Structures
1.
Amino acid sequence: MATPNNVESGERTAAAISEMSREQLTDELLHFEAKRVRLDFTREYLEGLPVDALRHLLWAALTRLTPAA
């Protein structure tokens, strides 16, 4: 998934996240890689969260834990 580094790409990223299924969101979070941070969620934990929380977590990871271009 692309990192949002400006308003237009941020809007595309938000739209892509909003269209993801629970399974897609969970997989993205379980396999998320940032340069200095590793997210340490279990599948069981993520499956217990509401879909909106998963979207929020992925958006936060993409906008805060990945470098801007």
2.
Amino acid sequence: MKNIYLTLALLSILFASCDREYYEDMDDIPTESIRFKELSVSKDTALMFDTIVLKAIAEGEDLQYKWQKNGGSLVSKKDDPITAYFWGCPTCTGWLTVGCTVSNSFGAYTKDTNVYILKQWIK
């Protein structure tokens, strides 16, 4: 009986944690409020400290942009929220993921892209 309760508890946690407002790489699904057309990247491979420029191209009303990354440095400007600047550092080389969530009061879409940061050897 304990196993049944434990299984039901784990299943309820699993289903409760699903966020219905998070859509990754679903650019072909039109919505009434947001159309996330493209997440462009100036280059997908760079040396440490080289800047990679990212742009989130989306359509909709009252859009908000939130940039995220799993390593490296990422900055965006308040006066140009669709553009972000990314670079890697010595402790964050290899494959890294950079993404942007475009949202408004009706929902949100997220797109991610992978970039590769090469180690820069000093001779």
3.
Amino acid sequence: MDKARKIIIFSLTRTGCIEYTIEMLKHFKEFNPILITTEETKNIFSKVDYILPGFKNSFDFITKSGPFYRKCKRLLKDLNAQFPKLVIYCPSFHPWNYLIGKLAKRLKIKFAITVHDYKLHQSERKFVRLLQNKTIALSNPCVFLTDHQMNLAAKAGFNKTIFMVLPHPLFTEVNSNNKPYNPLPNLLFVGYIKPYKGLELLSSALEELSFNKLTIAGDGELPKINLPNLNIINRKISDDELNTLIENHEFLILPYTQASQSGVLCLGLSKEINMIITEHPGLQEQLAPDCAYWSKPSKESLNQTLKSAFTNELLYYQKKKNLAQEKRAYSKSWNHSFNTLIGKLLE
């Protein structure tokens, strides 16, 4: 490990994976990294070292990519003069990560990224997939959240020796969920609302079941849901609001219809709230089988899983006990993997 190296963290994204970046910054704090953001993201963080121009839409992206590249080039040259052993880390996807990687290669600066989803969801454009592939090719190491996603990338022909897995970090500064068993439970869905998140599937599976309330909290376009006792918060949720929501619901529901490396699952583990989750490789890899209620991504299977969760008091408490044990094991394993990443960045 070369302690003379200086870590630069670029966080340019306005929406996706912000929570992941915030948690990762807490772990990098002891290395006193340089944080670079854009005007659009600067207020998310308590301390920012440098601010670069960003973009808000497709037209902005076209017109501002050039100015961003030139300003980023000047900044990296200046930093390279101050710290001859730089390393750049991009913890979440952004189209301009590719430009940063190209500059890093030209200036002989070590460059690393985290890939959250190698197999992007259907709604994401081919251009985004192309940029992600080109950025992966520039990265060493390239970090994935699960073995499943890493193996998908390896099958695409990338050099797997530069790959490593570091799961989503646990969320700090959160209280555990202590809600007792309730035969008429309060159900919670949180996160960005997208078609693959499975709200229509959840709605159909709940049609004939009795529950107290379903809360849907998150930004995005809501599908039509015909259920009683709906509490809809259709906007971005603050950390304080999120903590309050999780503390006041018995179940966190992840009814996803496609694989996802979900920060919501890690949030549920951090809060020790019982979770009902559809079976997908990326999700199943993040949590032991006995720590959640698992369902096939179908109406019939999810209906039966929900019914079982609502009616079995002993299993409710056993799952919560398992979650507490899993959280301790997860934390120990994660810290070991994070130290491996630090070793690679500072070698």
